[in-house]
Design goal:
about 30% helix; eight-stranded mixed sheet; AB_hydrolase_fold; 6 helices; globular; alpha/beta; about 240 residues; hydrolase activity; single chain; Possible carboxymethylenebutenolidase; Rossmann fold
Length: about 240
């Protein structure tokens, strides 16, 4: 696939300690054709990268961003059905962040885009890491935390240190509309820009665009995914400077 390449990033030994070059996270990345404006870390909780996700990464690179996705399941055997969240996910983000910095990207020009549980991580990253902007898609754990070590998003959102965009579907059972409204209120208490957008149905997934008949650009699902993708691009364009 044109422009894509594999690499790996060294994991930190612990916290902010120096990296350990022997412990690494595999990466899939794509670079822009010209000078990079910054970098986007894609946190995607799947063992495989769908064509839609790769298309999204390519489109971000075409806008000038070095776009890189750590393979979050690299610690788990192929047959494992374990979910990825917690210290390991944040360690993989930190390694990927360091990889971008080593390539000359400034910290405040690094964005993070996360889906599902990794979308929850993206919001938490924006409360604890020196990133420039964050976007979460379908991030659960709004009222009840995903793990003992992670705060509920309604408690974390007022502490956002980087502008954050949240995209939700009104029919997603893991993120009921009343909880999304609570998160919208919590986000408004932060000192940075925050926006929570809800879409009818489930057509808000930039990594899983809806299947619509040819020539049906007026389909509500198609219009929603176009709007969701536009918001992601605009969020990074405005806030990563």
């Amino acid at each position: 696939m044109s422009g894509f390449f594999r690499d790996s990033a060294a994991l930190r030994t612990s916290g902010d300690a120096p990296v350990d070059p022997q412990r690494r996270v595999p990466l899939t990345a794509v670079e822009p054709d010209g000078p990079a404006r910054g970098g986007i870390v894609i946190l995607h909780e799947s063992r495989t990268f769908s064509d839609a996700l790769l298309d999204l990464m390519r489109s971000l690179a075409m806008e000038g961003w070095v776009t890189v996705a750590p393979h979050l399941f690299h610690r788990e055997p192929a047959t494992s059905d374990a979910e990825v969240f917690g210290d390991a996910l944040f360690a993989d983000f930190d390694a990927t962040f360091d990889w971008l910095i080593a390539r000359g990207i400034y910290a405040d020009c690094v964005g993070v885009l996360g889906f599902d549980d990794a979308g929850t991580a993206a919001l938490l990253v924006a409360t604890t890491r020196p990133v420039g902007a964050a976007v979460s898609v379908a991030a659960p754990g709004i009222v009840e935390p995903l793990s003992e070590d992670a705060p509920a998003l309604v408690h974390a959102a007022p502490g956002l240190k980087a502008p954050w965009l949240g995209l939700y579907g009104e029919d997603d059972p893991s993120t009921p509309p009343d909880q999304v409204e609570m998160l919208r209120d919590a986000t408004a208490k932060s000192d940075v820009a925050g926006l929570v957008v809800s879409y009818a149905g489930l057509a808000h997934r930039a990594d899983e665009p809806p299947q619509v008949p040819d020539g049906r650009d007026d389909d509500p699902g198609a219009q929603a995914i176009v709007d969701a993708q536009r918001r992601i691009f605009d969020w990074f364009d405005v806030n990563l400077r």
